[in-house]
Amino acid sequence: MTIEIGQTAPDFSAKDQNGDTITLSQFKGKKVVLYFYPRDNTPGCTAQACDLRDNYQALLDQGFVVIGISTDTEKKHQNFIEKYDLPFPLIADVEKEVHELYSTWQLKKFMGRESMGTVRTTFIIDENGIISDIISKVKTKVHAEQILK
Predict the structure, then answer these.
(1) What residue ranges define each of the domains in the chain, with the CATH number in brackets?
(2) Average pLDDT over residues 25-53
């Protein structure tokens, strides 16, 4: 299943770094930046998270809620958040259920090897739960700029 701009964002229920349940529908009436990334504490993912952190106020000013999601555990997310002082929740999608909903768990090729992994993708969801933009060519160091354009 492919997710497209203009369609209703699939609702989900998943645990964040503190074991609290987050559902997409709880943010109805707000714009949501839902960003899927491969792994905590890797160079690209750290650059992306820190760019969103550094521009967090600008995102808030535009009415955005930021939610990161990867297949890392709650514990890894807690460490990542503490290490980089991240002001937004990170969902621990260990079972890849949300990844499957958004088609971000795919076969990837890296240095001639194929393996399943997270395709770095950001979904911008409007106040009514409709996908208004999909950023598939994420620039990790200026990601907030891509969102705020």
Answers:
(1) 29-148 (3.40.30.10)
(2) 97
C-alpha–C-alpha distance, residues 132 and 28, integer Å:
14
Identity (one letter) of the amino acid at 129?
G
Structure tokens at 67: 């939610």
113-118 and 105-110: which strand pairing? Answer: antiparallel
Q: Is the dihedral of CA 98, 103, 107, 110 positive or negative?
A: negative
CA distance 18 to 75: 8
Q: What number of residues does the chain have?
A: 149
> CA 135, 35, 28: angle at the middle one, nearest 5?
100
Which value, in Å, is the radius of gyration of the alpha carbons in the chain? 14
Catalytic residue among 9, 45, 66, 131: 45
Active site residue 45: yes
The two three-digit tokens of residue 37, written as one number: 């990334």
Band of the pLDDT at 84, cuts 50, 70, 90? very high
